[in-house]
Amino acid sequence: MKQRVPVSQIMAKVLIAVPSTKKISEVNQLFADYNIRHIPVVESEKLIGIISVNDILKIGYSNADMDKDALNDIYDAYKLEDIMTKNPLVVTEDTIIKEVAELFSKQRFHSLPITDKAGKLVGIVTTTDLINYLIAQY
Hints:
CBS domain; alpha/beta; 6 helices; 22% strand; single chain; four-stranded mixed sheet; CBS-domain
């Protein structure tokens, strides 16, 4: 296996990011449209949080048998800032993949936003990205 490979080699560089003012129903639709599970939340290109499919499921789970419009009304009773993870752990684009794997193995999350040295959001890496990288090594 290759040693000291930076996470920039496996991170998603084309990002879907949303402002904190975005409606939860709209964020939920982005998850469906792009088949993704994590979206960074930004204000003026600065990362302020991250939202996951699971965060949204938690507020609508008991009402999952409702029609889409009624469920969207429940989602939109919340603000994105109420359910997102604020100030998430981030890594820089030169963090090595092994360190990212260690973070995933010790934490309860499945994605990490990636910033450049100036702190600008430049990517995201998920456990799926990591698994695909490991599979490609064999």
